[in-house]
Amino acid sequence: MADKKIIKIYLYTRFERLWHWLQALMIICLIITGLEIHGTYRLMGFQTAVNVHNFTGLSWLIMFAFFVFWLLTTGEWKQYLPTTKRLFLVIRYYAWDIFQGKPHPVQKSKGAKHNPLQRLAYLGISALLLPVQMITGLLYYLYNDLSGALPLEVLAVMHMLIALFLLNFLIIHVYMTTTGHSIFSHIAGMITGWEEIYETTKIADWETQATRKK
User: Where would you find this protein in the cell (predicted)?
Assistant: First the structure.
């Protein structure tokens, strides 16, 4: 595909980009302060870490509600509908083909921003991990007022385990941003909204079935 012309399309809206970077900053802040609260290191002091963690967590919860509202009202939720078509080709690409210089089996396009593997990953995180993390964090925050809805030890373990999963995803996500046409092309796309794709890229039928109907 090296002989095909690369063009740019406007793929990510301003709100989408703002939410992406704000969420990234909030998750990083929550991980840093959360680890200090657990006594992993001393950076800003226990009480300050608690205050920053609580404020950031509540802000994240409010922002997430706006994000869900945006998904539902714009129809962008359809971008996250899971599919197994070409899934194993994408897995093979990241596990082997990418190191052989082969093209990605599913190119990005306006109606299909995420490949099948991304859809599954983002759906699992957004629909499962993030809500559970927010709920456990809120129960943790309101523990004294709720008279122990769950044992504190259970909340603490669940909250920390999901935080470690999110940290693992964050590391993988940063690595995956370097696998575009150039090392910074995907990052540039999430900053400017303009993503590089091949000029001949077309949306496959299985990708458009969900986006044709509003």
Answer: Cell membrane
